[in-house]
Each structure stands twice: as structure tokens, then as C-alpha cells.
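seq as requested:
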Amino acid sequence: PVPRPADEAGFTVTELAITSGILILVLGLFLGTLTTLTRSEDRAQRLVANEQDVRFELNQMAREIRAANPLTPLLAATTANAYTQQIQVVIPGDSGADEVVRWTYDTERMLMVRQRMNSTAANATVASESFFLNRVRNEETGTPVFRYYDQSGTDLVAKAIDNGGNLHDPANCAVRVHIELQSDSQPGPLPFTVTQDVHIRNRLPGNVGCG
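C-alpha cells:
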């Protein structure tokens, strides 16, 4: 065979293998960096979206509690502890008729829901339900969603449980409700926590039967 000049010589298998290895390494580093940046951006967006969702939920809940006329008892409850996961109010409806609204922390589905009830009776049923906040984590940390306080700052749920008080004192005697929500994104980092104290406008301290 006729020998080729030196400038027409091709790459050897070893040279191709080394070049390919370097190229794969560079591509791997680039893709790893790109993946990390994408995950960080996604995490940041989820954090912001989750914070906005929690604050929106809390603000709507606070508006309705503040405008309550006033709180109404959970007549189907058998223990005051039920008030740590539910609150029921009567507010003016859009059509002019009063609307019974119950906010419920569904621990099984990890949801905070807004329920429109057909009455305030013990056998009241849910007329409609809206899902407002997913992955509520209060149950995991043992943190009550709602805490009820009278004019002296007494925790009415704890008082009813510890001292045998009326189990409906949280609804009948509270002048202030402390709300705490813990929720994370899907999936996401540790839960975002937001709290707010809501003073009930349509109730004055010193109700009959309350300390």
C-alpha cells in the first residue's frame, strides 16, 4: 500500500477514547450544575407560592372571624379540643341572608377547608366545601390551628379541658382568636408558619356566664 503523508494521518483509538472521556466529563459537570440551578429555582418558586397561599388563607379566615356575629358553638362537639381544629361563624351573605361558615382542619387529608353549613344546629350538614390550603402540617407538630382567649387572656380550650369548664366556652366567651398555620409546598422544605391574632368585633368582654 502507498504510505500516507504525516498530515493525513487520523486519530488513534486511544486518542478518541481520551477525547470522548473528557467531553463526557465536561458535559456531566455542566448538566449537574444546570440540574442544581433548576432545582434551586423550583424550590424558591415553591417557597414563594406556598407563603402566598398560607397568607391568603389566613387573611380570609381572619376577615370572617373578625366580622363574625359572633362565633357560634360547635354543638356536635363532645370535647373542647374540637375547637382547636374548627371554628364556626355566622356572617352576612352576598344575597343579604346570613351565612354559616365553618373552617375545618382535616387532619386525614392535611387540608384546611372552608365549609358552608346549612345551619348552626348539632345535626347541621355541609352545603358546600372549598379547598383552600393543602399539606397543613399542624397535626405533625401538635400545634392547634385555633386558640381562644377571653378578656383576661385565659386559654379557654385548656381551661375547659383542665378545669372541667363548659366545652363551648371557646365559642361563647372568646374575644380573641389566635390562628397558626403550618404548611409546606409539594414537595418542599420545612413548613412555612404564619400566625395572626384576630379580635372579634361583635363581642364585648364580660359576656353572661363568662369569667
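The helical segments are 13-66, 138-141, 156-163, 169-173.
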